[in-house]
Every structure is written in C-alpha cells, then in structure tokens.
Amino acid sequence: MVTVSIAPRFVQHSERKIVGIGRIGEPVNPGAAWPVLFKRIDEVVDRVNHKQTIGIMKRDVLGYMAGVETEPSSEIPEGMHSFTIPAGQYAAAVHRGPISRINETFVELMSWLGANQYEQFDIVCFEVYDERYKGEDCESEFDMFVQIKPASVQGTIEIDLVEVQPFKALAVRTGLIPDKSGTRVAWNKLTSQIPLEDSRLSDGPLAYVFIPQSQWSKEVETLWVGLAVREFGNVPDGIETLEVSGGLCVSARVLGNEDHMWKVYDAIFAWLEQSPDYEIDTREGVLGMETVPLEPSNALTIPYSEINTFDFTMLYPIRKKEE
Q1: What is the SS3 assignment for 270?
Q2: CA atoms within 13 A on the CB side of 105
Q3: Contacts of 228 (CB under 8 A, 6+ apart)
Q4: How far is residue 169's CA from residue 192's CA, in Å, rounded to a whole number?
Q5: What ranges make up the beta strands (E) of 59-117?
Q6: pTM listed for this prediction
Q7: What proportions of the chain, in percent to the nearest 5, are helix, strand and coil?
Q8: What mean pLDDT, rounded, does the chain reach?
Q9: Residue 287 contacts by C-beta under 8 Å, 6 or more apart in sequence?
Q10: Is there a contact between 174 and 183 (Cβ–Cβ < 8 Å)?
Q11: pLDDT for 121-161, tens place per residue?
C-alpha cells in the first residue's frame, strides 16, 4: 500500500548546497548512484545533517543526484558533483510505502497541484531520506518536495456575480492595524472558544473575515474574524453573533503574491465604478466577506509578512443603482 499526505504542506526553503554522486544534465541511473554515495559518504565534509540523504531531479532535464546537504563553502571530493537547490516555496508530501511505488505519490502530488492552479518549475522533486526510510518496507516513509509558484492564470482576474445565501456566524471583532496581526489574534481567540470540531459549524466555506461595507467609502477600521454556524447556541464571552445577509455579491479569486492581491482589489472596485447597473451596498449592517481556506494552509495562523501566496475569495454584496 502507498499513501500520500494530500493536501500537501507549503514550506519555504532557503538555498541548499547538495554534494553527491550523479549530475543534473547527464543520464544517471539512480539505482547505481546511491551505492556509490554510501561507499564514499565519509569523504564529504561539513555536512549539515548526518541523518539525511537527498535525491534530486530537475524538470525536463536528464539526470539525478544522490547526495547530502553541506555548508556552502564545503569542498567537493574528486568524482563528485554539487547542485544548489534554489530558495523558494515548495509543496511537501510524505511518501508512505515501498520506494518502488514512488511514482504513484509523485503523480498524485502533481495532480493536486494542477487542480489547485499551481505550476511546478525548476526542481521537479527532491526527496529527503532519514531514519524513517526502510526501502521496500510497507512502513517506509520519506518526504518529497516540489518547487511551486501560483499558475500563470493569476494574471487573468475574473469578476463574477454570485448569490450568497444568508447565514449565521460566531465572530471576534478586531481592528485593521498595519502589521495585520489583529486578525491573527482574533482567530486565536475565536478558535480557543469555538474549536473547529464544534458541532454547530456549517458545511462548506467555514472561516471568513467580515468587513462592514459602510466603511468602504472611508478608512476601514473594524473587522470581524468569524466561523459560519448553523445555530448560535451557547455563546462564550467575547464572541459576537453575526447575521450575514448575503445576497447578490461581486466576487473575485485571489491566488498569488501580495502584488497580485492588490491588483484584484483594484480590479473589483474598478468594475464597480464602471458598472452601469450595480454599486456596492454600503447600507449599515451589510457585511463584505473574504473566505479563509483552512487547507493546505490557514493564512490566519501565519504572520502576514511570511505569506508568499494569498488564497481567498472576495464576496462583496451589491445592489442595483438607483435610476
């Protein structure tokens, strides 16, 4: 049996120097490279982690390297080569099962990334083997990493009109502060009292940031971080109840870096300014919504400055313009 941890984790890697047997750019048999590496592994000095070995392949390029991570200044023994794994964002999955079935995990990981609009580039895969690796044993495990970036589709911003049904939410009020930590503090407070296993939580989109739309014409000061629920039930101290009216909303997906996110904000408000039929509903009590996906990572658990890929959907209630 072979299994893969999907959805993958997204991790940020710094640059890593690998020294070993084999070479990217030349035909290499991985099965032949590993025994040579293990025979000569003590020749490699300044190793970073003596419990790990690393296998590398590169997209659309012949070759394979079996190696170990070293310090940047480490010398390369005669007959060995080095390769630098570039810094960047990687999707990480765990291969569980025999090494001979690694391609099944790789295919599943690639399918998930493609379905979620991520492109793979440069390093197709590097594998990290440690004490969990047991060859053909069904209990064997090792980590796989694929360098990614949001797909080029992020250059196209699509504005849609969608109908959102009214719903209830339990929420924590916060302010909009420069480092964006207010929403993270609010999320921690909310989920400490309303855990994600709470039976009141709704199916479907679950976590939101709510913005009073009456603030769009001035500076946004108040936000709520909330969880959609079927019923309010017993409401803990410090938690507020929201009746979200929903209705017809202008919507756009954000999937990209911070620059892309601000372009989507600009695009959605430019659409509103140019629309002959609709305007944003700024009546008191009307709440704009931004979804917070919990997988593969929850942005409200990551400091804003460390987010590389913003992934959420804007949903802002609109109304017909008066004649």
Answers
A1: helix
A2: 27
A3: 167, 168, 169, 201, 202, 204, 205, 206, 207, 208, 244
A4: 16
A5: 61-70, 81-85, 88-96
A6: 0.56
A7: 25, 40, 35
A8: 87
A9: 210, 211, 212, 213, 224, 242, 244, 245, 317
A10: yes
A11: 556 689 999 999 999 999 999 999 988 865 544 456 788 89
